[in-house]
Write a structure and sequence with these properties.
The chain is an alpha/beta fold. It has 27 helices and twelve strands. It has two domains: 219 residues, no CATH class; 276 residues, P-loop containing nucleotide triphosphate hydrolases (Rossmann fold). It is 57% helix and 10% strand. A six-stranded mixed β-sheet has the order 8-9-10-5-11-12, with helices on both faces. It has a four-stranded antiparallel β-sheet with strand order 4-3-6-7, with helices on one face. A two-stranded antiparallel ribbon has the order 1-2. Helix 4 runs antiparallel to helix 5 and helix 4 runs parallel beside helix 6. The protein binds adenosine-5'-diphosphate and magnesium ion. The site of magnesium ion (MG) has 3 residues, from helix 18.
Length: 619
């Protein structure tokens, strides 16, 4: 079964396969009847729709039950631009697409603030609103009577650039458009922009911690997804020549979602399979018209029992999210076995080693001053001050609930301070958004590791480089040469960081298949990729084996050797003892000790609050 999936993936991924399929589809209509040509055209439209929802829901994790709305805006937009404004068809189709993208962008403003169930409600509300507007706005949309006489091959009234377009020509236009969109999407998903979408899906907070702006990323996802659905709508208007509200009901939205999900979301192949299946199936089931929906319903009920990740998951290997060519160019084969690193390529990568060594008496990089954080009546952090110096490791110690994580959460922008300051390089950054703080060079890891489970270790670690990428979305979608070089440089650095973190052996394993220790180390490695000045690690040693602890200690020393400041929250005294320079002990949100390790072990307040218990347990 695995071998079969590998073969299918290899075949599907080969450029020759795309070419053969394209050519076959190009020539098929010549010998097909009109009904088949029409059906094939609908397959192309549905591929676009399924990809549209896949990008938003499957990739960026934002469920939508309102895609019929985008589809409608593109359709009516383009039809009206031709009919009422006299625009040429090409301009109208592009215009409809752009208008829909703008609506998607705007929808992201409210929709970006809610999740899951509430998001499903909100997007279905959007779909319903579009439907009602079409139905009621008689003067413009023709209301329930619809809009007829739209330039289309069906009415033999479609001309593009002075050429008369018949049904077969139009299908070929759709074919090329769908192929181009698929290519662009594939490139996009295998770029840092696409990976950021997955990061948002996995954890918005974790994405923010490596500098990904969640609100902006969602706006992008909505706008691009809407654009693709709008394009499909515009093509639809000129395919059928007539638009009525019935084509844009919530059933349509559900149908699109079902195509993508049953086909397999999060991949490019999946929605294509779904679109093909769900366009052909109804026409094949027509013979059993009465049972058509029963069969449909049954498929929906059993499909996920058989194929948890949709059809694509059953017949192909999980999709990957790094350009294969960049992997090869970085001296790593697609299978991930590190080959010899090409020296010239390595030179373009940023060197991992920084210059700074021990700098004990320089100004602190990050300072927390009189910080207070309240939760309702509880004061979790109660007037804490501490300073992190370059090239020094500070341990933050204290019993459970003493406010350690809260301090890091405030310093990294997840919570706003109730009062007090967080000063980084002399500037108060307290209260800024977490992605903005990360962008300035303050990065943290989480007490519960937050990674993208469907990514490999390498992909997760590479995610940490997000802030260091410069390629635009358009350059990434077009896969311009600079994009490849940039990806390659970050891949080389990823390999180096994984080597330091002891992850080389599992680089190409899916994160979800790995034991806990690897996940923690992957998260630390991801944070290292951001090359921050200040790294705050929230209990990185929890749940690690002895061997992994040793590795973690090496990693932390390595980060220190680069002149970074490290804040290390840790319970494990032996572990802390070996590596830290300074210690701050919290109890009930207050600092009860600051100094070095040996002083701490003798400090009566610390012994009373905390160490007594620990030492008994350890001796
Ligand atoms: P530590 O990391 O030292 O174990 P925390 O910082 O997680 O402690 O928690 C400190 C206190 O603040 C605890 O009493 C905890 O219940 C409370 N707390 C932390 N986060 C929140 C929150 N989001 N809402 C309410 N209370 C919180
Ligand atoms: Mg904690």
């Amino acid at each position: 079964m695995n071998a079969l999936r590998q073969t299918v993936s290899t075949v599907l991924g080969h450029p020759a396969t795309s070419l053969v399929v394209l050519l076959a589809l190009w020539f098929w209509p010549a010998s097909a009847d009109r009904g088949t040509v029409q059906l094939l055209s609908f397959v192309m439209l549905n591929i676009l729709l399924a990809q549209s929802i896949n990008l938003l829901t499957g990739v960026a994790g934002q469920i939508s039950l309102g895609h019929a709305g985008f589809f409608a805006i593109g359709a009516y937009g383009s039809a009206l631009l031709v009919k009422s404004a006299g625009a040429p068809v090409i301009a109208a189709i592009l215009g409809g697409t752009v208008i829909t993208a703008a609506v998607g962008w705007l929808l992201a403003v409210p929709a970006g603030r809610v999740k899951e169930f509430y998001l499903a409600m909100m997007t279905s509300g959007f779909g319903l609103l579009c439907f009602e507007i079409i139905k009621e706005w008689n003067d413009v949309t023709g209301g329930v009577m619809g809009l007829s006489g739209i330039a289309s091959p069906t009415l033999k009234s479609l001309t593009i650039l002075g050429l008369k377009i018949d049904a077969i020509d139009y299908f070929r236009i759709l074919l090329v458009a769908a192929a181009v969109v698929l290519w662009l999407l594939r490139n996009f998903i295998q770029s840092h922009h696409g990976r950021a979408f997955f990061a948002i899906q996995a954890s918005e907070i974790a994405a923010g911690s490596i500098g990904i702006d969640q609100a902006q990323t969602k706006r992008r996802a909505y706008a691009i997804s809407a654009a693709i659905a709008g394009l499909a709508g515009a093509f639809y208007a000129h395919l059928v020549g007539y638009l009525g509200p019935d084509s844009f009901t919530i059933m349509r939205s559900v149908e699109v979602l079902v195509m993508a999900v049953v086909g397999g979301i999060g991949t490019i192949v999946g929605p294509v399979l779904g679109a093909v299946l769900f366009t052909f199936l109804p026409s094949k089931l027509q013979a059993f018209a009465a049972y058509q929906f029963m069969v449909y319903g049954l498929i929906l009920m059993v499909v996920f029992l058989l194929f948890r990740k949709g059809f694509a998951g059953a017949i192909t290997e999980p999709a990957r999210f790094i350009q294969p060519r960049a992997l090869r160019a970085a001296g790593l084969t697609a299978a991930g076995v590190p080959a010899r690193i090409d020296a010239s390529a390595a030179q373009t990568a940023e060197p991992v080693a920084a210059t700074a060594g021990h700098q004990t008496d320089t100004a602190p990089l990050l300072e927390v001053r009189d910080l207070v954080r309240r939760f309702a009546g509880l004061v979790a952090v109660d007037g804490v001050s501490l300073a992190l110096h370059p090239g020094r490791i500070t341990a933050l110690i204290g019993p459970n609930g003493s406010g350690k994580s809260t301090l890091v959460n405030v310093a990294s922008g997840i919570y706003t301070p109730s009062s007090g300051q967080v000063v980084f390089r002399g500037k108060d950054i307290g209260g800024q958004a977490n992605h903005a703080i990360a962008a300035q060079g303050v990065v943290r890891t989480f007490q519960d590791p937050r990674l993208v489970p469907s990514f490999t270790v390498r992909e997760n670690v590479l995610l940490g480089a997000h802030l260091r990428y410069r390629s635009s979305m358009i350059a990434s979608a077009l896969r311009l040469p600079g994009v490849m070089r940039e990806e390659q440089a970050h891949l080389i650095r990823t390999t180096e960081v994984m080597e330091v973190a002891g992850l080389s052996g599992v680089a190409d394993q899916l994160l979800e298949s790995l034991p806990y220790g690897y996940r923690r180390l992957t998260e630390v490695a991801r944070a290292m990729m951001a090359d921050p000045d200040v790294l705050m690690l929230d209990e990185p040693a929890a749940g690690l084996s002895e061997g992994e602890l040793g590795r973690l200690a090496e990693v932390i020393r390595y980060i220190k050797s680069q002149g970074k400041s490290v804040l290390l929250i840790e319970h494990h005294m032996d572990f802390v003892n070996d590596i830290v320079d300074d210690v701050v002990v919290l109890d009930s949100g207050r600092v009860i000790y600051r100094g070095d390790m040996s002083g701490m072990r003798r400090d009566p307040a610390v012994i009373e609050a905390y160490l007594g218990i620990q030492q008994v347990a350890h001796d």
